[in-house]
Write a structure and sequence with these properties.
heterodimer; A: alpha+beta; four-stranded antiparallel sheet; B: 582 residues; Glucose Oxidase, domain 1; Enzyme I, Chain A, domain 2; TIM Barrel; eight-stranded mixed sheet
Chain lengths: 96, 582
C-alpha cells in the first residue's frame, strides 16, 4: 500500500466524559511524535491532532463519531493505532 | 450605597478602602513592546513556558506520589496544553507581528480559547475553560514575577474583597494591612472562616456574586457580627458604624477583665476552657485569655505553606513551641487532617471536581496509607511531649480497625525511638475525634479503647445531616441544634462518663454562647473554643447554675426541629446573660 495516501477511519467515542482532556492529551502527544500529519473531523469541524486545544474544541461528547484522517509516512499504521486506542483503553476511561 | 448579606465568619466591625481581588489578578503593565525588543520578549515568553512546564511536572510527581496516578494525570494533561504548538505559535505571532507584550499576547489568546469553550454550551468544555484561565494565570505569574499578588504588596490598611481566599492566602494576611475581608464563596465553618476567626480579622463570607459592582477604592464596611457588607455607605450609616465600633471595643475591654476569674458555674462546677489553634503564634491569644490548655492543635499549616513535605524537625519545633507555652496544661495535637478544601499546596488540583473527596482519601486514612508521612509526625509529637503535657488525637476515625491500626503504628514509632536512643515521652494519652456518625453511634465501644474523646461538631453535623458546611445554599440544614446531633452528643458524653474518660467538644458549636448551657447540662465539663471567644464563653459559664443547665438540656431534647431548639436556647441565653453583646 502506498503509505502517503490519505487514510480515513471512523471511531466512536465511548467515554462518559466524551473525548476529554486526558485522552486528548494522549492523542496529541502521539500525533506530535508521528511522522504523518493527522486531522480529526467532527461534523463540520476539523482539528489538528497535535493541538490539544484544537481537539478540545471539537466538543466530542460520549457517543460522537469522529473521522481520523492521516497523510504521509506510516499513516496507515498510525491510524490503526488510534482506532485500537478508541476501541480498547479509551472505553470506560478511568478518570480521577 | 449597597447592603449585602452573607454569613458572619469572624466578629468585629471595620471599614476602609476596598481592594478587589478579581479572577484577573494581574495588572498587565504593558500592551506593546518595541520592535527591537521582540526577540528578547519571545525568549522571555519561552522561559516562562519552560518554568510553568517544570512546575506542572513537579506537581504531577507530587500528586502521583501523594494521591495516586489519576490525580497526577490531571497535571499531565495540563502539561500537554502548555506544549500545544498551535497555542504557542499564535502567541508568538502576536508578539512578532503585532508587537504585543508576551503578557498581553498570552492573556489575549488564552482568554479567546477559554471564552470559546465557555460559549460552546458544553458543560465539560466550560470547565476546561477554567483550566485555561488557570494556565494563563500561571504563565502571567512567571512573566510578571509576582505571586498573587497585591496582597503581599499592600502599603496601607484596606478591606479585601474577593471571590474566595484559599486557606493559605488567608493564613498569610497581615492584620496591619488587612482590616477585614469579604468573599463571595465560603460558609461559616469553611477553613477560611475559621482562619479569619483565629487571626481575629473581621470577615463575612458566602455573599454570592457582588464583586462586579465594586471597582476598588470605595469605602466598605464589614460587619462580622451580623454578616453584612456595606459598599459606599452614606454618612448616616458610617456614623452608626463608627459608634458600633466603639461599643465593640469597650465590650472587648470588659471581656478582658474576665481573664483572672475562674471558669466555673454559679454552683461551683469547674469547666475546663481550652483553645483551638491553627498556628503556634495563636498560643498567645490563649494564654492572654487564661485558657486551661489547648484542646485542638490543628497541624495542617505545616503542610499548607510549603512546596515540600515538612521534616520531623519542622513538626518538632512547632509542637515544642506550644508545649512550652503551656507547660502544665494539656495540649492536644491532632494528627494530619488534610482534606479536599485544605490542600492548598496543589493550586491546580481539581480535587474539588471529585465529588467524593470529602468522603474520600483524607485525614487519618491518608496517614494510614502513607506511613512515612504519619510516622514523621508521630515521632515529632512524642519527642516534643517531653516538654509539656501533650496528648495525641486521631481525626476522622470511622472504624475500630482504623484506631487500632493507628495505635499500632504509634507503637512502632515508640519502638523505633527506643532503639535509636532518642529521648521521648512514653505514655502519651491517645484519643480520637468523634466526628464520623459511626464513631458516635459506637461510642460505647470506642470509649473502652481511647484515653479521651473530642467531639468535632463541624464535621459531625456535616456527615450526620449530609449538608456541606461550606455551601451557603444548604446552610439552613447545617445546625448544631438539630435533634439528631443532640442525641448523638448525648450518646458520646454518656459513653465517656461510663468509662471515665474526658469528653471535649472542639467544633464551632462550643464557641457559640447559646449552646453552652445545653452542653453543660448534657454533662460536658471541657470545651475547646476559638480563642477570642474564651471570655464570652467564660461569662456564660459563670452565669449558669448547673441544675438549670440540666433542665435546659432535658427540655431541648424534647424539640423536634433545630429551629425550635435554637430559639429556645437564645431565649434562655438572654435571660441568663443579658449583658452579652447580642
Amino acid at each position: 500500500m502506498n503509505s502517503s495516501q490519505t487514510i480515513r477511519k471512523q471511531v466512536k467515542v465511548q467515554m462518559e466524559e466524551g473525548f476529554h482532556l486526558r485522552p486528548i492529551s494522549i492523542v496529541s502527544k502521539l500525533a506530535s511524535e508521528a511522522e504523518c500529519s493527522v486531522t480529526f473531523i467532527h461534523g463540520k469541524q476539523k482539528a489538528d491532532a497535535t493541538s490539544t486545544l484544537d481537539l478540545l474544541g471539537l466538543g466530542a461528547s460520549n457517543g460522537s463519531v469522529l473521522t481520523i484522517e492521516a497523510t504521509g509516512k506510516g499513516s496507515d499504521i498510525f491510524v490503526q493505532e488510534l482506532v485500537d486506542l478508541f476501541e480498547t483503553s479509551f472505553r470506560n476511561f478511568e478518570d480521577a | 450605597m449597597q447592603v449585602i448579606k452573607g454569613v458572619p465568619a469572624s466578629p468585629g466591625v471595620v471599614f476602609g478602602p476596598a481592594l478587589v481581588l478579581g479572577s484577573e489578578d494581574f495588572r498587565i503593565p504593558q500592551v506593546f513592546v518595541s520592535v527591537d525588543a521582540v526577540e528578547t520578549e519571545i525568549a522571555r515568553f519561552q522561559a516562562a513556558l519552560d518554568a510553568v512546564s517544570d512546575q506542572i511536572e513537579e506537581n504531577e510527581k507530587l500528586a502521583t506520589e501523594r494521591l495516586g496516578s489519576q490525580y497526577g494525570a490531571i497535571f499531565a494533561a495540563h502539561l500537554q496544553l502548555v506544549h500545544d504548538r498551535k497555542l504557542i505559535s499564535e502567541i508568538e505571532t502576536l508578539i512578532r507581528e503585532h508587537h504585543f507584550s508576551p503578557e498581553f499576547a498570552s492573556s489575549r489568546v488564552l482568554r479567546k480559547y477559554a471564552k470559546e469553550f465557555q460559549n460552546l454550551g458544553n458543560h465539560y468544555l466550560a470547565e476546561r475553560a477554567d483550566d485555561i484561565f488557570d494556565l494563563k494565570k500561571r504563565i502571567l505569574r512567571h512573566l510578571l514575577g509576582e505571586r498573587r499578588e497585591e496582597l503581599a504588596h499592600l502599603t496601607a490598611p484596606m478591606v479585601v474583597l474577593a471571590n474566595n481566599l484559599t486557606p493559605s492566602e488567608t493564613a498569610r494576611l497581615k492584620k496591619k494591612y488587612v482590616l477585614g475581608f469579604a468573599t463571595e464563596a465560603g460558609g461559616h465553618t469553611s477553613h477560611t472562616a475559621i482562619l479569619a476567626g483565629a487571626l481575629e480579622i473581621p470577615a463575612v463570607v458566602g455573599l454570592g456574586d457582588f464583586l462586579t459592582d465594586v471597582s476598588g477604592g470605595e469605602t466598605v464596611i464589614i460587619d462580622g457580627h451580623h454578616g453584612e457588607v456595606i459598599i459606599d455607605p452614606d454618612e448616616e450609616t458610617l456614623a452608626r458604624y463608627r459608634d458600633s465600633e466603639a461599643k465593640f471595643k469597650s465590650f472587648t475591654e470588659r471581656m478582658n477583665l474576665l481573664h483572672d476569674l475562674s471558669s466555673e458555674t454559679k454552683d461551683g462546677i469547674r469547666i475546663q476552657l481550652m483553645g483551638n489553634i491553627e498556628f503556634p503564634e495563636e498560643v498567645e491569644h490563649c494564654t492572654q485569655r487564661g485558657a486551661d490548655g489547648i484542646g485542638l492543635y490543628r497541624t495542617e499549616f505545616l503542610y499548607l505553606e510549603k512546596e515540600t513535605e515538612p521534616t520531623e524537625e519542622d513538626h518538632y519545633e512547632a509542637y515544642c513551641k506550644v508545649a512550652k507555652a503551656f507547660p502544665k496544661k494539656p495540649v492536644v495535637i491532632r494528627t494530619l487532617d488534610l482534606g479536599a478544601d485544605k490542600v492548598a499546596r496543589f493550586p491546580d488540583a481539581r480535587l474539588e471536581d471529585q465529588p467524593s473527596s470529602v468522603l474520600g482519601l483524607r485525614s487519618i486514612r491518608l496517614s494510614l496509607r502513607n506511613q512515612p508521612l504519619f510516622k514523621t509526625q508521630l515521632r515529632a509529637i512524642l519527642r516534643a511531649a517531653l516538654h509539656g503535657e501533650i496528648r495525641i488525637m486521631f481525626p476522622l476515625i470511622a472504624t475500630m480497625k482504623e484506631f487500632r491500626q493507628a495505635k499500632m503504628i504509634l507503637a512502632d514509632v515508640i519502638e523505633d525511638l527506643q532503639e535509636q536512643g532518642i529521648p521521648f515521652q512514653k505514655d502519651v494519652p491517645v484519643g480520637m475525634m468523634v466526628e464520623v456518625p459511626s464513631a458516635a453511634i459506637l461510642a460505647g465501644e470506642f470509649a473502652k479503647e481511647v484515653d479521651f474523646f473530642s467531639i468535632g461538631t463541624n464535621d459531625l453535623i456535616q456527615y450526620t445531616l449530609a449538608a456541606d458546611r461550606s455551601d451557603p445554599s444548604v446552610a439552613n440544614l447545617y445546625s448544631p441544634a438539630d435533634p439528631s446531633i443532640l442525641r448523638l452528643m448525648q450518646t458520646v458524653i454518656e459513653a465517656g462518663e461510663k468509662e471515665n474518660i474526658t469528653v471535649n467538644v472542639c467544633g464551632q458549636m462550643s464557641s457559640d454562647a447559646k449552646y453552652i448551657p445545653l452542653l453543660i447540662g448534657l454533662g460536658l465539663r471541657r470545651f475547646s473554643v476559638t480563642p477570642h471567644t474564651i471570655p464570652e464563653v467564660k461569662d456564660v459559664i459563670r452565669n449558669i447554675d448547673h441544675k438549670i443547665a440540666v433542665e435546659i438540656a432535658q427540655d431541648a431534647l424534647e424539640f423536634d426541629s433545630a429551629r425550635d431548639v435554637e430559639n429556645f436556647l437564645v431565649g434562655h441565653l438572654k435571660k441568663l446573660c443579658p449583658n452579652l453583646f447580642l
